[in-house]
Write a structure and sequence with these properties.
Helices cover about 20% and strands about 20% of the residues. It is built from 16 helices and 30 strands. The chain starts with a helix and ends with a strand.
Amino acid sequence: MKTFKKLLAAVLVLILALTPIMPAAAVSVVSDDPIIVMVNGELVEFYDQLPVIIDGRVLVPARDILEKLGFEAHWNALAQIIGGHAMIPLRAVAEALGGTAEWDSINRVAAITMPLPVDEEPVESGDILYYVLISGSFLEGIHNPVFSIFADDGIVNDFIFTSLLNIGQNNHFNNYGAAWFEYDVDNTTFTMHFHEDTAMYWHDGVPVTMYDLEFAYEMIAHPDTFSQRFGPANNTSNILGIEEFRADPSVGISGIRVFNNGRSIEFSYESIDPSIRISAVWATPMPRHHFEGIPMGDIENHPNSRYNPIGNGAFMLVDSTEYSAFLLANLDYWRGAPKLDGIDIQVVHPDLITLSLAAGDPIFFDIAQFSVINAWQIEYIPNTTAVMALDRRLDFMGFRHGFRDNLTEVITPNMDSYINCVYLRRALGYSRDNETVAESLFDGYRFPITTTIVPWHGDIMYTGIEGFSIFDLDKANAILDEAGYEWIAGEPFRRHNVTGEPFELVWLIANNIVENFEKVTFHQANWARVGLDVVLFENRLVSLPERTAILTQDWDDGVIHIYDATWLVGSNPNPNGLWGNFSHNSTRYTNPEFDAILANFDSAQAWDMDWLREQFFEFQRYVYEQAPWIPLTSGYLIWAVNDRVQNFSLDRDEYGPRVPGARGWHLWELRRQP
């Protein structure tokens, strides 16, 4: 019986079919001469369909080549269909499975060399857990939590790294972590101490000390790095001496003091943020010795961050690609050796699940994190149970209000932008049908939200406003009429209320499994029904990294008016971290009233929880009335858990994960089959 790892390798092969492989010109090649395929010197026989060359790639029948290599060809969703046969690129097959491929264009021979005999079965491991990320994107591969920003990479990194402090069910720090904490309001300090009986080691056996946590802060705040961890959300920007360090890193950060032989660390702040008592402190160390001698500006993309990370978590990264990560147990994990031998993580495109179910092909995994558009399929997968939890996600429609100089940190409003009009922003919100999209595209696993505070932070979510969750074209038209956006009979769109000329709004949106053209055209059609001409930036969907670069670096030069994005909110709800003056806040929104509201969250009065809750309500009322951005949807996280998996839990009180089991993964184990 073939192993699931083999099946997943085949999945990877087919995903790679989207990428040009052979270095020939990108044209179809037609020849009467057959293409010969050899595997380790043996001729591969093709029966119903012969190999072809299309767009510079040698395509071969998937079933014939995979069976020759010893794989079961169940996964064929992304292959190119020719003559009723699934065809995949030959070089992708070889390289995905650890081999090489050579093309002899004169003799039309494609030769694959595999490192092992193709009929040799891999050694079976009894305790390897197969974890599937069902996603339309890929792993960026930055295994450094200081710099990693994408959710899938975060899941992998949570296996590798662990915080010194724990976050419980109420999103507050507790003392179940490797360290305990105390804070002094009068002296504006926050101190962490390793528990006396705690011994924590890096994966290479070097002890973890508070000097490593100090190094993480140096990495976050260094002028040659860009980390979204720098800011009030983690209280990394208001430490005493932080600006002096950013001006001259050689002076160190005066507000950080490591003492007690590296077992304790004290942070001194210019003013202490009341949210610090919740979980607003960066507490994940980074191995100072592992990056010794590497310039700070090179660390993010250095092999020690991408391919050879050293963590302090329950598992060690052994190998990774854009679509996979293989981890082995860290036997010296501070909570105890994991019960599993390892975890094999694979990124699988949702279409593969869909078509495999339709074809009746077997599907196996231990744990799969499903996308919201595929969660309905879980009930058709035998021996699995669906587990759900509220997601931290805030999907929102952002507006570009100005520009930010990332060196001087000065925001300059773009007074010429169409989006400066609050009437226009509110009309865009009311004419966007989020409920239909949530139901039709996400099967109810996403839902419209009324406010910019998501249900994950339900105790401070204001329920006194309806927000823009109700689709109302009449209200949108009335708002535009009142604001003077004239709609002349016979013209497809309204004219601008100041210039009197036709105008268009440019929308930036990224391409992934949910931001697709069907959704885009649906919203564009509704906006057209209220007379608004909304066009895609450069008439295309951009990649996620491209969107991030355009927005954070202001590469659009004021061209973009609207963008769609998602925040994964942290346990600290202080809105300064997301909506304050930071490069990652791509709205570039500022005005005295809004800035004063944000300042309240860092004031001395914010230690009064009743007063602080009212400030959260006032913040949400302001966002609804002024619409600097429009909250759209939140949703659920969904896992399918195989019945043989034990100790998978959503309880965060003891281990405090960001996702289920993140601090309790060492307890996962597999039920032995009789």
